[in-house]
């Protein structure tokens, strides 16, 4: 004997099972439906016929597109095409992480959330602005990171672009910053980051640093300037072999060591030339005629490079101060338009 309650449950179970099968069949048919015009453009090799092979190919393609929506960056080109005007063009792109590189955030019960800018950040951005297109790339959501970017990018605004979590790839439960989506020449692109998954696809472009935890005596950003200035001033054709040559060593320290060796060799050569010049007839007449090596010629190339860079930086700062009011009005208008667009 089977009670009426059991019979009712069995009928409901059968109905639920049948409805599930119908729903699954309907979903399969929906996924395999013919392309709409936009899909047909994206998948030109798969026809819209109902024959079995194209039908299953459309199902697979739509499932792959759905997965890619969450796995890949939001756009195929994350940055607009490079500026071609020589007055504004920067030959190199510098991709900077945000959290624990440029800033450090922490929370406590007394003060809540607080953000600290890394020592030397303003000078770091202002000085490199003459050489690099500066891009902040963070795996934080836009609504979290945008106020932080705006805080460090107040007047005059050296950061040209900001990218957020939706611009990252998602792989193995980690957010990856895939530089191939940047729409930039990777031979002229440097990434500075503190998170290993971030650079996992292009380690040869990455200057790898430990996270900054808020130490106010930190000098890492300033220590990085000589290397970054050298790359730009010497017009390095491909930054990747140069970065790879440092391996796992601390790049600012290793670059300073190599520079010290090269400087010592250069100064030794200058002293040797002076000794030979004094002991030669040509050196005697050259000294008498004032044609010996100039003081400028005796300067180490890095010193001349930095003097020129510092001079250009100071001239830019003077120019910015003269047009501060106009620039701030433009920034306020851009922020207003951005806020209206987000509503």
TrEMBL record:
Keyword match Transferase: no
Record-annotated FCP1 homology domain positions: 87-231
GO CC terms in record: TIM23 mitochondrial import inner membrane translocase complex
Membrane topology recorded in Swiss-Prot or TrEMBL: Single-pass membrane protein
Record CDD domains: HAD_FCP1-like
Residues passing through the membrane, by range: 12-32
InterPro entries, sorted: FCP1_dom, HAD-like_sf, HAD_sf, TIM50
GO biological process, one term: protein transport
PROSITE patterns on file: FCP1 (PS50969)
Record keyword Nucleus present: no
Coiled coil location: 306-340
Alphabetized UniProt keyword annotations: Coiled coil, Membrane, Mitochondrion, Mitochondrion inner membrane, Protein transport, Transit peptide, Translocation, Transmembrane, Transmembrane helix, Transport
Subunit structure: Component of the TIM23 complex.
Function: Essential component of the TIM23 complex, a complex that mediates the translocation of transit peptide-containing proteins across the mitochondrial inner membrane. Required to direct preproteins in transit and direct them to the channel protein TIM23, and possibly facilitates transfer of the translocating proteins from the TOM complex to the TIM23 complex.
Family per record: Belongs to the TIM50 family.
Protein's name in the database: Mitochondrial import inner membrane translocase subunit TIM50
Organism (species): Ascobolus immersus RN42
């Amino acid at each position: 004997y089977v009670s009426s309650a059991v019979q009712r449950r069995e009928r409901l179970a059968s109905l639920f099972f049948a409805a599930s099968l119908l729903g699954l069949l309907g979903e399969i048919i929906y996924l395999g439906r013919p392309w709409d015009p936009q899909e047909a453009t994206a998948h030109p090799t798969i026809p819209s016929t109902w024959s079995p092979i194209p039908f299953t190919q459309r199902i697979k393609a739509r499932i792959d597109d759905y997965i890619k929506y969450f796995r890949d960056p939001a756009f195929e080109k994350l940055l607009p095409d490079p500026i071609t005007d020589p007055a504004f063009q920067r030959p190199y792109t510098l991709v900077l992480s945000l959290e624990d590189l440029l800033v450090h955030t922490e929370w406590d019960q007394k003060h809540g959330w607080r953000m600290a800018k890394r020592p030397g950040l303003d000078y770091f951005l202002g000085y490199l602005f003459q050489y690099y297109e500066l891009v902040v790339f963070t795996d934080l959501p836009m609504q979290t990171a945008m106020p932080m970017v705006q805080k460090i990018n107040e007047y005059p605004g050296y950061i040209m672009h900001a990218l957020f979590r939706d611009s990252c790839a998602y792989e193995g439960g980690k957010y990856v910053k895939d530089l191939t989506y940047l729409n930039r020449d990777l031979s002229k692109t440097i990434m500075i980051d503190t998170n290993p998954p971030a650079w996992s696809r292009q380690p040869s472009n990455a200057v790898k640093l430990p996270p900054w935890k808020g130490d106010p005596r930190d000098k890492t950003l300033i220590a990085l300037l000589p290397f970054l200035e050298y790359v730009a001033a010497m017009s390095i054709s491909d930054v990747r072999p140069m970065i790879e040559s440092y391996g796992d060593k601390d790049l600012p320290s290793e670059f300073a060591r190599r520079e010290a060796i090269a400087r010592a060799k250069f100064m030794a050569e200058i002293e040797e030339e002076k000794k030979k010049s004094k002991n030669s007839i040509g050196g005697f007449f050259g000294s008498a005629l004032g044609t010996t090596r100039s003081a400028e010629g005796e300067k180490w190339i890095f010193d001349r490079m930095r003097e020129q860079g510092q001079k250009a930086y100071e001239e830019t700062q003077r120019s910015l101060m003269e047009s501060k009011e106009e620039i701030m009005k433009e920034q306020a208008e851009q922020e207003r338009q951005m806020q209206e667009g987000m509503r």
